[in-house]
Amino acid sequence: MLPYLSLAIWVPIVAGLLVLAVNRDADAAAARWLALVGAVAGFAVTIPLYVHFTLGTAEMQFVEAVEWIPRFNVNYLLGVDGISLLFVLLNSFVTVLVVWAGWVVIEKRVSQYMAAFLIMSGLINGVFAALDGVLFYVFFEAMLIPMYLIIGIWGGPNRVYAAIKFFLYTLLGSFLMLVAFIYLYSVSGGSFSILEWYQLPLSLKTQLLLFVAFFLSFAVKVPMWPVHTWLPDAHVEAPTGGSVVLAALTLKVGAYGFVRFVLPILPDASHYLANFVITLSLIAVIYIGFVALVQADMKKLIAYSSISHMGFVTLGFFLFSELGVEGGLVQMISHGFVSAAMFLCVGVLYDRMHSRQIADYGGVVNTMPRFAALAMLFAMANAGLPGTSGFVGEFMVILAAVKAKFWLGFLAAITLILGAAYTLWMYKRVWFGAVVSERVAALKDLSRREFWLLATLAAVVLFMGVYPKPFTDVMHASVTELLAHVAKSKL
Question: How far apart are CA 192 and CA 262, in angstroms?
Fold first, then answer.
């Protein structure tokens, strides 16, 4: 069998390097086409992962193992299970959309822009596929560099501040994760294999210390309250493609760390501190929802919305039930599609008006009816409307929370009210009503490229909302095995 995971990692990275070689703006068309071919090829090589994936087993599949640094027992070790597979597919799919979205919008340093996204796509796939601690850490840190450049070069007026803040927040938290990896290496007899770390008999005191190290690293990445302040700044200053990848993919890496490291390696500490994490998650769901309600900038509103929705993910994980964990994973995938669509919609308006302020808009439906229809679908999905992907994960987590404690489910369900409030109020002020200015009156509806870009996401959002079984079937066995492993060590 072909090394599909290596192809998923290295095809976009090599394509990015080739695009980088086309470094003149005069050759921008060639850079765009080469980037699109590279992105499509990167997605194509991930499809066999789903087609040939064996359901009903929690074993790692498509495993690749090559010695890397024998002296320290560091290996190039790859593999995916039902939890990580879907995120490899999500990442590769979104990369195609991001390249497509920047087709005519980016006019300067086109090759560098496209190359940054392709290289980052390969690195993110590496994060989800790595089964060696050092390999995971290398990919985890390396993916910061392209995003730092994307925000810092193609971002808004305060891009340097936002880029440095993003980099420092995520980098500093990761240092503690490295310390945790080195400790696990020492107590495991010199192994960086993540799967071997699952079997270590660690005392509760040790687990609590390691939990702090992992939690600070992954909580910043999610981001959880109160270490979330870098995200709104990064979103506001990032170009549209950067915001899409940041929301749809980068945040998922942090949540993925909880199910790949924290729960299986530190089960006792996870149970011991579950109420702490659940409390932070509910604060993110409710408090950040109110913060989103008062935003005047569309991008900032959607950024806070992302923090609120990701609070659902961590809430689901620490309920220790199949419904909760699967609901959290489904929410991650759905949020990847919906947040990408929301930021692309803002990008469509910004490309025409060069403003993200809600007050500058009004009556857009009168001049852009096709766009308004698609934007309404995504707004409803963001609010958790049944029949859209946004409803499935949230409903599963709420059910799991109610089964655990009624008041948990009650508090979690508040997000359905807040989500509808801030999303639909934004939609009302931007799209509905009379045309507020000559600039809005002069707006032209979606181009063919923009229409098919958003229509593709609309189809995925509706499909996942109506028929989530292909997603839940893949993850079910792995989630069951994870919870069985965590339950064995319950205090």
Answer: 16
